[in-house]
Specification:
The complex is a heterodimer of chains A (348) and B (183).
Chain A: H1 4-39, E1 44-50, E2 60-66, H2 70-98, E3 102-103, H3 110-123, E4 129-133, E5 140-143, E6 151-155, H4 156-161, H5 164-179, H6 182-209, H7 216-260, H8 264-275, H9 298-302, H10 307-312, H11 318-329
Helix pairs in contact in A: 1-2, 1-6, 1-7, 2-6, 3-5, 5-7, 5-8, 6-7, 8-11
Chain B: H1 2-58, H2 65-79, H3 84-106, H4 109-113, H5 115-150, H6 154-157, H7 171-177
Helix pairs in contact in B: 1-2, 1-5, 2-3, 3-7
The chains are: A alpha+beta (348), B mainly alpha (183).
Chain lengths: 348, 183
């Protein structure tokens, strides 16, 4: 072990940063929820009284007063909590089916299951379920809201291209996501952002289609809030989600080193991923943040890839992750290799 | 009145911090105990494989009874080790005895090709890996536990219960005890 303190510092730093980011996501959601509640009359009440003088043009005068309407606020908040809870419970299975994963049961996956079990023992968690995706692009992801409901999925391309040592590094990275509760954290962030998008959509539609009616003011306000959400809240949420996901990726690399007691496995695996140009057959942006290497960002690299593009990425650049691991290993940060040369896995 | 409320709030906060700290130390200590029993599980798994392995080698090299006895004796010793130091001490003889067993197998090509033997051998290798990862987790848990009871505020909270330091697995103790087997 060259530098144990290095990755422990890295872990602590990452953990703190992602707590701040997650708090940002929730503050954003809280503001959105309050806007909705306010619009539905959660904080104000219209009070109408008969006019003081009978000769007045208007028979009644109305004014809006601040008044807390607990029922409206409670309904809005409980609907948001219920949505997040249900989506959260269903998210693991949804991700597996979106990725076209099947259980890794056959004898050809005995070594894979073995490595998964070893890393689960090293991390002190129950053995996760193991799935494979038939896809030549090397990649992997972990799902499950807690270690008891966790699963690790790898592509057959990963099994074909990685040596046992590199596979152990990748599995350690995925196990790290499970131990660090990353899936729970990032899933909550993704769902919150999704909810903001949904609310914006509903606001704009209702506002737009009921615009001609008599409740003109309310419709206009809905349209305005929906647009504001689209312009400000949604991009802010997406940025926070991406930043959070990037932090958790670096953290998982650091934990993988701790579990395998060597940076070489995961470092060599990431270098192979960097050199590989195969692309996942079913890339879904909904689960892009789950994979060890983003399945989405290949095309961006060739096109415009300014600093804004990088801010929206769910993964830190591979080169940067490799640089950190190489410096822990005491190698030249910008060099490459040595790699484990031959895949020990039988190529399917 | 206001002072009383402030004092009560502060006392409640202090109580919450103390209870939370105490519980987290208990959790870490339980994790150490769990880590230890996970090593036991893997040691038993290996012990269950060894008689079958000995039987399969016996079928080809019955005259090597001294080695078989050494393997079985080392296996039984490893099962009765109750502390990390004892387990590390028991590890040397069993590694050495298994090394001799596999050295015998090297001399019998038929045995080396035997499907059952190969299956047992690979299971044994996998189990040895599991043992070393279980030890690693145990050491990680002990370190986390020690860090908590040696630093503030854990160092005070630890005085309220039976939170003693635990023994770590010393890696070089294992290494020193393993004689190199030349093939």
């Amino acid at each position: 072990m060259t530098d144990a303190a290095g990755f422990i510092d890295e872990q602590r730093h990452n953990r703190r940063a992602s707590l701040v980011i997650l708090a940002g996501v929730f503050v954003l959601l809280f503001v959105v929820a309050n806007l909705i509640a306010g619009l539905l009359g959660g904080y104000s009440k219209q009070i109408c009284e008969p006019a003081a003088s009978p000769t007045s043009l208007n028979p009644t005068t109305c004014r809006t007063e601040f008044q807390l309407n607990v029922a409206v606020i409670a309904i809005v908040i409980s609907m948001i909590v219920a949505y997040l809870l249900l989506a959260w419970l269903a998210s693991g299975k949804a991700a597996l089916s979106m990725a076209h994963a099947r259980p890794a049961d056959g004898p050809e996956f005995a070594d894979l299951r073995n490595v998964v079990e070893q890393m689960a023992i090293a991390a002190g968690i129950p053995m996760p379920k193991v799935y494979v995706v038939d896809d030549p692009a090397p990649n992997a992801f972990a799902t499950g809201r807690n270690p008891k409901h966790a699963a690790i999925t790898v592509t057959t391309g990963l099994l074909a291209k990685m040596s046992n040592r590199e596979l152990r590094g990748v599995i350690a990275h995925e196990t790290a996501h499970i131990v660090n509760r990353d899936i729970a954290v990032t899933t909550l962030a993704v769902l919150s952002v999704g909810l903001i998008a949904l609310i914006a959509e509903i606001g704009i539609r209702i506002g737009f289609f009921s615009g001609g009616g008599r409740r003109n003011d309310a419709a206009g306000a809905l349209l305005l809030i929906g647009l504001l959400l689209y312009i400000i809240a949604l991009p802010a949420g997406l940025l926070l989600r991406a930043a959070l996901s990037r932090k958790r990726e670096s953290l998982a690399d650091a934990t993988a080193v701790q579990l395998t007691r060597e940076p070489a496995g995961i470092r060599s695996a990431l270098e192979k991923l960097e050199a590989d140009t195969t692309v996942i057959a079913h890339p879904t942006s909904a689960i892009a943040h789950l994979w060890i290497e983003s399945p989405m960002e290949r095309e961006q690299e060739s096109g415009l890839h300014g600093s804004f593009g990088r801010m929206m990425d769910t993964h830190p650049p591979l080169a940067q992750r490799i640089r950190i691991l190489r410096s822990i290993e005491g190698l030249d940060p910008d060099g490459r290799g040595p790699n484990d040369p031959s895949p020990e896995w039988p190529v399917q | 009145m206001v002072i009383a409320i402030v004092v009560i709030v502060l006392l409640v906060l202090l109580a919450i911090i103390l209870i939370g700290g105490y519980n987290s130390i208990v959790r870490l200590r339980n994790q150490v105990d769990n880590g230890w029993s996970q090593i036991d599980v893997q040691i038993k798994r290996r012990a269950d494989l060894i008689p079958n392995l000995v039987e399969s080698v016996k079928g080809y090299a019955a005259h090597e009874s001294g080695t078989f006895e050494a393997v079985v004796a080392a296996r039984n010793a490893s099962l009765s080790a109750a502390s990390p130091a004892a387990a590390a001490a028991a590890e040397g003889p069993i590694e050495a005895a298994l090394g001799r067993l596999f050295a015998i197998a090297e001399a019998y090509p038929d045995l080396k090709a035997d499907a059952n033997f190969r299956q047992l051998q690979s299971e044994l290798t996998a189990t040895e890996d599991r043992i070393s990862y279980a030890r690693q987790f145990y050491n990680d848990s002990v370190t986390r536990y020690h860090n908590r009871i040696d630093t503030f505020p854990g160092v005070f909270i630890a005085k309220f219960g039976d939170f003693t330091h635990r023994e770590l697995f010393e890696a070089d103790e294992v290494d020193r005890a393993v004689p190199k087997v030349e093939f």
